[in-house]
Each structure stands twice: as C-alpha cells, then as structure tokens.
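Dear support,

I submitted the protein below through the web form. The confirmation email said the job was done, but the results page showed an empty box. After a refresh the structure appeared. I'm attaching both so you can tell me whether what I see now is the final result or a partial one.
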Amino acid sequence: MPRIVADWLADHVELPADLTTSQLAADLVRVGLEEEEIHPAAVTGPLVVGRVLAMAPEPQKNGKTINWCLVDVGPEHNATQIKGVDDADVPAGGARGIVCGAHNFAVGDLVVVSLPGTVLPGGFAIASRKTYGHVSDGMICSTKELGLGEDHAGILVLTEAGFDAADLTPGQDAVALLGLGDEVLEINVTPDRGYAFSYRGVAREYAHSTGATFTDRGLPDALPTPPPAPTADGFAVEVDDAAPLDGRIGCDRFVTRVVRGIDPAAPTPSWMKRRLEGSGMRSISLAVDVTNYVMLDLGQPLHAYDLDQVAAPVVVRRAAPGERLTTLDDVERPLDTEDLLITDSPDGERGSRVLGLAGVMGGASSEVSPTTDAVLIEAAHFDQVSVARTARRHKLPSEAAKRFERGVDPRLPAVAAQRVVDLLVELAGGTADAAVSDLDTTADPTPILFDVALPSRTSGVAYTREQVVGVLARIGCAVDGDGGTVTVTPPTWRPDLTEPATLVEEVVRILGYDQIPSVLPAAPGGRGLTGEQRTRRSVARALADAGLVEVLSYPFIGTQDLDALALPDDDPRRVALRLANPLADDRPLLRTHLLVTLLETARRNVSRGIEDVAVFEIGLVTRPAADAPAAPSLPVGARPVQDELDALAAATPDQPRRVAGVLAGRRLPAGWWGAGRPVDWADALEIARLVADVAGADVTVTIDPDHLPWHPGRCARLEVVDGDGSTRTAGHAGELHPKVLEALGLPPRTAAFELDLSVLVDAAGDEPLAAVPVSAFPAAKEDFAFVVDAEVPAADVEAAVVAGAGPLLDAVTLFDVYTGEQVGTGRKSLAYSLRLRAEDRTLTADDVRAVRDGVVAAAAERVGAVLRG
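What the results page shows now:
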C-alpha cells in the first residue's frame, strides 16, 4: 500500500502548516482512501551532526581494531572533561569521547552522532557505557542504524551522501536534516483507483476532501521543459502483438528518451533519498532512483536501460515457446506465451533478445550499472490484464505491476519521461538527446450518457444538478449538455469510470457518504427462520452443549487430501468440481464431504500440542454428477432468457449441507476424580444420534463394514426411512481407520461422524412437533436378558424388543452386555430394561405378562434370541 510523506504531498497540493498525520488520514478517509497504518518517527531524541576532531586506532586482543574518537557535537552537547583523556587534549570548545568500530571515515569528516537518550529504529536506545577501556558517550551512526538503508559496513559521512559541508554545523539537528522525525501515513487503495498509487493522485483526492488548492504537476505545461514532439530519428520502437490477450493489444503507447554523459558516480541527493525511503522504497543509484521517484510522484512506471547494452529496434511482443529471462532479482524464469516482453535486436536480428517483462520487471542484461554514462528511458502504457496475469504467473508483484494492473493514465508517458530527463540533466550532469520516439495508438475514453437525477434516486440524497455536474467536473470529467441527461467523458486517469453507476459512486463519494441517511428496513410480519435454519442452529447448540467446539475450514482440497483418507478410485467422493482459478495450486477442488477438511483442522490442533480434541463443523459440500453438463457463459449486458437460466441450474451441482465432528484423546478429562476416559467409536455414534434427535428424524443404525475412512469393524451407518418405506443413508459414525490416522498424524482410536443435515431435515418433515401427553398412571418395569450370536447388532435386538412390546412400551434401555463361558463361544448377552405404561389405566399382571410374551417371541423370531436363564 502507498506510503505518504507529507512534505512531498505538499509539492502537489496546499497543506496547512499545522497538519498532523492523523488529520491527513481523516481527510483522506472521507474520500475513500482508508488509513492502513501510521508509521511513527524513525528516530527520537538527540541525534546531531558531529565533526570528527581526533581518532586513535586501538588494536584489541580479539583481533579487532577500534577507533577512540573525539567528536565535536556542538557547544550545547560538548563535554569539557572526558574521562580517560588529558584535559589538555580536549579542545577548548569541548568534545565527546566515542568508541567506533568502523574505519571508513577520517578526521574532519561530518557524521551523524546519536547522543545518550536517542532511540534509533528498532527500539535501539543509546546510553553512555564503558567499552574497550573507554566510556563511549554516544554512537557514530551507519546508514542501517539510522533506518536509511542496508549499508552497515561503514559510517554515514554526510558530505559523501550529497550534503554540502557549508550547510552543516556541529550540533545541528540531524533528525530534521535526514527527515527521520516525520510520521508516515500508509493508506489502503481499492483496486479500481490506481491513480491513487501516486502523490499526484493522493493530492487530488486531498483537494476533493478539503477544498485545498491542487496543482497538477502531471500536465505538460507544469514542467520546466515541455515534452518535445517525436522525431524521425528517435530510438526505434515496434509493437508486434500478433496474438493479443483476449483481443486487447498489450501496448498502445511507448515513449523513449535518451540522456548521455551522465556521471555514473553522481550520488542521489539526500532529499530524494529521504522521500524514497519514507515512501518505502530503497535507494539504489541515481538513475534508478530518479525513475522510481517520478513513478511515485506521477504514477507512471518507468525503466532505465544502459544505452550501450540495447540495440535498436526495441520490439514489444509476446513470448515464444521455450524462451527464458533472468530478471533483475537474478532469477531465471521460463516465459509463457501470454507474457508481453520488451526485446531488442542485437546483430540485426529483430526482437531476438529479451530485455524484460513488460510492465513487471526488467532483465539483468541491460540494467544500469555503476559505469553507465548513457541511459535509454522507457515510459510506456501496457494492458492492465496482461500485466496482472504476468505478475501473478511469475509471482512478481513489483511496484510497476501494481500500478499497471490498476490502470495508468495513457497521457502520462511523455510527461514522466521528460521529468526523468530533467532530473538526470540537473543531478547527474547529463545531456538530453534531441531524438524522441513516441509510438501512440491510445484511444480516447468512451463517453457515458448520464442522467443527472440518478445519484439522487440511487442514494436517497437530494443532490442538485449543479452539485452533480460540479463533482463530475472536479474529478476531471468533461460534461456536455444542458438538460437532465448529459454526456460525460471520463478523464484518462480514470479507466474505472465506464458506466453511469460508477459516476454515481463518484458523486456520492465526493459529496460525502455521511449524507446518506441510515434507514432500517422494516421486517415484514409472518416471516422468520426456515425450518432448516432453525434445525441448523439447534444442532449447533446441541453439539456445543455436548462439549464440541465449532470450527470453519476452507472448502478447498486436493487429490492428496482424498488419498490420505484412502478412498477407493471409484468412490463417488472423488468426483469433485475443479475451480478455474484456485487460491492454491495444490487445492483446486471443492470438497465433496466435510471430514476431508475437518480432519485437517483436527490434525493442526493436535500438532500444536492439544491432546484432547472435540470439534465439529456445519457446512456445504459440492457433489457434481459425473456426467453433468458444462455451465453456460451467460451474457453480462442483458438479462438471460429462461432457457439459459434452466441450463445454468442443470449444470449447478448438488450442494447438500452436512454436519461432521472429530473426537480425539480423552472424552472425559482426567483429574482428582479419576483417570478420565478415552474416546471410542460409541462416542461418535452417540453424538450422531443426538444430531438426528435434535433434527427430529428417526434413524436406524446398522454396521457398515466397508466405508473408508472409518474402521471396517467399528463403523455405523445411520439410515432414515422415507414415507414409501425405502431407506436413505443419512451418514456414518465410528472409529477411523488406523492407516488413515497414521497418514494424518492423529492419535489412535480417533472417532468421527458425518451426517447429511439436508437428509435429516427432509426426513423430519415440515409438520410442527406436537406435545406428547404424559400419562398419570404408574409405570411397570420388566428386564430381559437375551443371548444372541456375537455378530447380531444390538440395534436389531432392540428393534425386535420394541416391535414385540407394542403400544404399552414407554422406554427401552440397554443396560448390560456380557460375553463369557456362561453364554458360550461366539455368543453374547444383551440385557434390556423396559418401562411400560398405559395412558388410560393402571396395568394389570395380565397386561405385563402379554408384553413379556410378545417381546420374547419377537426377539426369537427376528434375531434368534434366547431368553437367558
């Protein structure tokens, strides 16, 4: 995001003398440029200019040589007595004794000294301290220590950094001199307002917000030397875009200028360094710094080539298959045929050598070097989409790319190039070449037919015609027409203004969002949450009450996630919808079930030391049909016809809502009351049945021996019965397969459940729950212990008990399971407690006997159960 140095902003717009950074942020927020951060002053405390009066090298036992220095830091900071120094050796005006380990400075040099009490960048506080046998009463600073660059090898000598010795005095405030006491405002710019990535653009917005006078230094007549007309002998440039991207030519303007005879050793002036570094950009060399400075100032990216390393003509073209480029960051990159390139023509072979990625980053072969004395300046206008795709493809979010992909003013290249020429002539002693090239095929902005009453109808604020037209004129639009409908031609720096709605937004923005009344819409009576919404909330509350924590996971997966669950190749959960533009290349699919992402959440928690995990998620999954038709591309400028909408609906995959949970570690915690209890498969099944109960759906439970990622012998399938008697699978619950747990790094015996909430809601129906009357008559209790084969599910035995008990059954509970010699090998005993009750009478012994006989008979007939003696 752009950083704003106030005194640089003042070059473009009138700022109040008492303007604070917080007030500047508030002023810009009013027109939609939000405050991202206010960066505090880099240095606080007494940082001053010092002159080195004496320095004595002192070798140390560790092999290092330090300099014991006497430094004049001004009469108000000097000491007349220095510990360890003979008073006769202290100058009459006093000095400070400072230990320094650097050796790139000499007696008489003007340096920057941080006195005790100074706080340098990074919170580095300076104090007097004894070191190497001396009391060092301050510190002589390097560029890095001051936060002005990365050079930590030597001391910052001010005269070598471009400061005039005549303007420097020992004791002078170095904080103001170096601009280290200024707060810097960082703002957030929306993608449609690329012009605000420049001081020129931000200044314009400040003027809109406050009414301050704005001086547009991006106009040709605002320059000391207006841009010259192109000449026939200008550096040859060609655009050869035979395969434009989506029909858009990649480059519609290309300006070149040449400056010869520059001094390669000319330093970047301190004021420019300070502004660049305050804006978040590192100083590199004068030629490069000038192009960066103009880019930040006006918003036009530029590039400087070593003229001796470029052969005419420059050709702008798409990459050929197999081409590669080593960019300025010393990375060799394979190029894509969609990449727009800047090339030149060595040995007469037109466009054969790649110089850089257009609008993104230059190449290493033609970069400006410490010996460059002639530069070729490029100022071009590139297609937004082409630059954006190239920058993302190569993961190069350069400062140039950030501006081009948001839209740059196509009228700026000649102005920006002239500004660079002027600065190189002034600061580097160069001479501007008379040859100028300007390849210009740009088109004028498209006029928009606009109803001046539209802003009022849209926002609810009664704007006058004069207000609307005045705002459009203030933002740079040309407005033609006297009636209610006018023709608006947007300025060239606003490519986002393409339709009436965008003009409405500008009117509302400039006149103030705070003028729009806040109207709370009235909620129509008789509406509320749907049955499914109520169920969803009830399920979430019930799971939270059961001790599970709700989480949200991203719905994006990769085939490796499905492989980790050991799903078979023909499993329908492997049929997933692939995203055209995924957030991550390794997760391009939409999840087909919840566990695939919920298990990753559980794994992350376990890996961070959480031993007991109980999490759940309610969310949508995407289940495309294997033979689903492709979705049609619907028109943008017109309402789709019904056939198109039907085709779109047919291509939309099913998206059922599901609920899933994962349990690992201990279900009951350990403490003074005991060792606790680990999670097992029954916990997952119990919670799954709780979900079904809350949803109001009756489910039956059977064993599912082959449904990964669950354990083949500890997986339950939950089914609902439809009105026609058919059954549907609602989900599964149980212990996860050991190999799956090993692949995911989860604890042994981890259990999970996943249910289709849509199926449960559908099975429950829309009928409201009716209250069940409570009988006032006493209950009778009967216990049964049945011996059955070990493979018989307890649920089947319970179903037989319920069927045999008939309408008098009030409740049934399994209270004991026994296996052992008394019941025989391969057999088990299941003990049930029945509570019997009638609504209209007290039960008799005959009633209870009849129920008992029915239960025994039904259990024997259905599951081969024998009543245990």
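Response: this is the final, complete result; the empty box was a page-load delay. The first helix runs from residue 6 to 9.
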